[in-house]
């Protein structure tokens, strides 16, 4: 059974991720919220070693997104996110690689759908 301190840490991180996502563009916010929610549900019953890795990675994610939401960064870069180091694929399971690919497809479809909507709106 997880300690009260561990549960509190997970809840704080979970809430922090959703607060940080508020600064994202609407389509990325929905995608990010859904992905985070699903990942936290999937790891609800993982062992402590996996939980520590999971929490460290999501903490790094939250810190990186928070930095990118700062106005100065937005003014200079106008981008959100960073490229995945290809070496990370060596550490992923087949299931994780498929999940990453599905996320990539969903993100690409969101971008394509939004671009076509904008093009249609400018034509009318």
From TrEMBL:
Location within or outside the cell: Mitochondrion matrix
Domain of life: Eukaryota
KW Cell wall biogenesis/degradation (keyword) present: no
Keywords: Chaperone, Mitochondrion, Transit peptide
InterPro entries named among the record's database cross-references: SDHAF3/Sdh7
Biological processes, Gene Ontology terms: mitochondrial respiratory chain complex II assembly; succinate metabolic process
GO CC annotations, alphabetized: mitochondrial intermembrane space; mitochondrial matrix
Keyword Mitochondrion: yes
Family that this chain belongs to: Belongs to the complex I LYR family. SDHAF3 subfamily.
The protein's assembly and partners: Interacts with the iron-sulfur protein subunit within the SDH catalytic dimer.
Biological role: Plays an essential role in the assembly of succinate dehydrogenase (SDH), an enzyme complex (also referred to as respiratory complex II) that is a component of both the tricarboxylic acid (TCA) cycle and the mitochondrial electron transport chain, and which couples the oxidation of succinate to fumarate with the reduction of ubiquinone (coenzyme Q) to ubiquinol. Promotes maturation of the iron-sulfur protein subunit of the SDH catalytic dimer, protecting it from the deleterious effects of oxidants. May act together with SDHAF1.
Name of the protein described by the UniProt record: Succinate dehydrogenase assembly factor 3
Organism of provenance: Plutella xylostella
Phylogenetic placement of the source organism: Eukaryota, Metazoa, Ecdysozoa, Arthropoda, Hexapoda
